[in-house]
Design a protein that fits this description.
single chain, mainly alpha, two-stranded antiparallel sheet
């Protein structure tokens, strides 16, 4: 696509989203929303924030399950990168923190970025698997609003497709990773080598025990998110049932792969309020609860990300550019046979 056309489309989409958020903001009673927030139980809200942080810890452990086989055996490193990436996701669009945390682990553990990207791809896949499992079970056994209930066939089809993909990964033929030889002179050659490392790593780390562990951790992470939403609603004295909370969680995360605004602010509130209204609840109170949920998801997580990995947060953009696939560092083998940068970064 022509660069000017692409730029124009991005500007147009941004303006459209801003216009929709402005229209949304003008139709709510901000006085009522503020009154609901002021009466919130601080202790319950704090407990919900702790549960939300635990869900991110679980996601970090899930990534670590796939990082260990490639030589990144430090759980603290995986957790630091996960929190820092989540903090960046709160201030960037399109989940930009995911790409940045790959660079952080790659540089810190001296492992080529293609291998780290492969482990992150599997971790993100199981995030999606957990979501589809929750959606399928909820649509089958719970009385959900019609818009969510209608996607039940698609959710079941997606679950079957993901199951088939995971089975194929477990039974796939051995993949020979191309690492020998000098650094390719062309970008096509570098891209081919990058892809070889990526595919080879996917094949190497895919195993039944790891998949089972990742699936259980995904179910736990989504369960903790349900608890976070429910506890926040109770803190605000909002009569949100567990079924309504699950429906809201599913709706606000429907497009979790693509955040349209930093932290999905505005879009999150709109989706949460729509789910609450579908259960006959007050729209303004629902928006107040959604603001509280996002406040505890954004503020503590971003602060923790900065505290745990300040060098990552403030230098992520520079590192991301340096670690682009076309600019891969030359690799050598260490004494244990692992790929390491020939010139380790300072």
């Amino acid at each position: 696509m022509n660069q000017k056309v692409s730029h124009a489309l991005r500007i147009g989409l941004t303006l459209l989203i801003i216009a929709m958020l402005v229209a949304f903001a003008t139709k709510v009673n901000w006085h009522s929303i503020w009154a609901s927030i002021r009466t919130t139980s601080r202790s319950m809200l704090l407990a919900a924030a702790v549960v939300n942080i635990l869900s991110i810890v679980v996601k970090g452990i899930r990534w670590w399950v796939f990082l260990r086989p490639i030589g990144a055996k430090s759980l603290p490193l995986a957790l630091r990168a996960t929190f820092a990436g989540a903090g960046l996701n709160n201030v960037l669009v399109a989940n930009g923190g995911e790409a940045a945390r790959v660079v952080f682990v790659s540089r810190s553990a001296h492992i080529t970025s293609a291998k780290v990207v492969a482990t992150l791809a599997l971790e993100r896949l199981f995030e999606l698997v957990g979501y589809v499992v929750l959606l399928s079970l909820a649509a089958t056994f719970l009385d959900l609003p019609q818009p969510i209930d209608r996607i039940k066939p698609f959710a079941i089809a997606a679950l079957v497709g993901m199951g088939a993909l995971l089975m194929w990964l477990l039974k796939r033929p051995d993949v020979v990773e191309t690492v020998a030889g000098p650094k390719p002179a062309t970008w096509q050659g570098r891209l081919k080598r990058y892809g070889s490392r990526f595919v080879g790593t996917i094949a190497a780390v895919s195993s039944g025990p790891r998949f089972i562990a990742a699936l259980l951790l995904s179910v736990l992470a989504w369960g903790l998110q349900v608890a976070t939403y429910q506890m926040t609603a109770r803190a605000a004295n909002f009569p949100m049932s567990t079924v309504a909370t699950i429906a809201a969680l599913l709706l606000v995360n429907l497009g979790f792969l693509f955040r349209l605004t930093p932290g999905n602010v505005g879009v999150f509130q709109t989706a949460y309020a729509a789910a609450a209204v579908a259960f006959g609840l007050d729209r303004n109170q629902a928006i107040a609860v959604a603001l509280l949920i996002q406040a505890q998801q954004i503020l503590p997580v971003t602060l923790l990300g900065v505290a745990l990995a300040p060098e990552f947060i403030f230098k992520a953009q520079k590192r991301r550019v340096a670690d682009a696939p076309g600019e891969l560092p030359s690799l050598s083998r260490d004494a244990r046979g692992n790929d390491t940068p020939a010139d380790p970064p300072a």
